[in-house]
């Protein structure tokens, strides 16, 4: 400390007092600063320092996925549609044909696919579907009894009529009526199911709810068949041949006008393509529960009507379930000669088909031969 003071003293002496004046000025400045210090800059927060983004290398850029090629639409076998069309052109009258492959890539071919054709007893299919849908909903039971009296007898083919006339009122289960309506195409059994379901509107509601397309449902066999003939239904027509007699007594012009009206705008009309698409939905289990689907297909496999229609063209080893329809005749015109069904190949591939002969002058063997050609040709092209 002493050494330091001596050093400063020698400095002051050597400067001759000038240093003293300088030191005084510095002290004054220092005092001023100490009295009012300048604010220090605030420390910076730890904000992230933005750096320029590094240029990605080409290797780091993900490559876009390769474009997905659209799955080619299923197409029918070459030549199948040409053969169907060739035979269809040669067949007299108004005929609709539709073929739908259900499995292995769906496709549809046919002629007059979207036009309405009279269904006749083909429409029993929609009654059966409606009944089983009500069973699935718990609103009906298969073992539920339905009473049938003489007032319930319909017209045309109805084997159940003879039992009612012989025994009086009978009680039939819903399942028994389904069997008779489909396998034997019994009109009284079908009308009894229709009554049990709640009437034609319930069937129409089922068709609309399930989005089955261009499928109409008529007022029931008695009313519809009377209107087609130019008559108004009377219950007495259900006995013996009274319906036929009343129809034959009408003037020919009246009968023809009534039939022409029906054919031009059938109250039970359906398009062939709507029918096969509905059969496709049935086959895929989209309309009923699995149990009800199996039951209906099993019943349809035992259909006894129309053995020489589509069924006769199905090869050995294939399965076939179907429902026929047959309309009235006003010579030389036959109407509503139909068959619809599902044909299953040995490998499990299923085809829905519908042949709807709205009106024709062809003989019954010719009609059968045309139907057989359709089913046989589909099977032939499946095997190629």
Automatic annotation (TrEMBL):
It catalyses: a beta-lactam + H2O = a substituted beta-amino acid. Residues 97-356 form the Beta-lactamase class A catalytic domain. This is beta-lactamase. Its EC number is 3.5.2.6. Belongs to the class-A beta-lactamase family. InterPro entries: Beta-lactam/transpept-like (IPR012338), Beta-lactam_cat (IPR045155), Beta-lactam_class-A (IPR000871). Residues 45-72 are annotated as: Disordered. Residues 62-72 have a biased composition (Pro residues). GO terms for biological process: beta-lactam antibiotic catabolic process; response to antibiotic. Residues 47-61 have a biased composition (Low complexity). It comes from the Bacteria. Keywords: Hydrolase.
